[in-house]
Amino acid sequence: MKECPPELLEPYFTTLQRMAKLYKVRLDHAFVEAGMSTATYYRNKNGVTEMRWDSARKVGNAVEKLHALQAARSYTRSLHRSGSVVSKASIRARFKPREFG
Known about the structure:
Blueprint: H1 6-9, H2 12-23, H3 27-33, H4 38-45, H5 53-82, H6 88-94
Helix pairs in contact: 2-5, 3-4, 3-5
């Protein structure tokens, strides 16, 4: 029998930490964006509780959203610097965050 890859067995919080680091998003901000308290963030960070799938999905979506906002802001700044016309509609369409089911 084959062994399961370690990344499939890691806790949801660890997966979210890797995702936030990759996207350069503060995970505590993602918890707040997902409608959760910072206390929930710190309980998970300190290993006091385990995350449920539904909570992890909400925070993952918030990380995606915050990443998309950062990318859109950066792109908008570059357009302003170059003197190009900035269209909110086209920027929103270009940087639409993914959502996890």
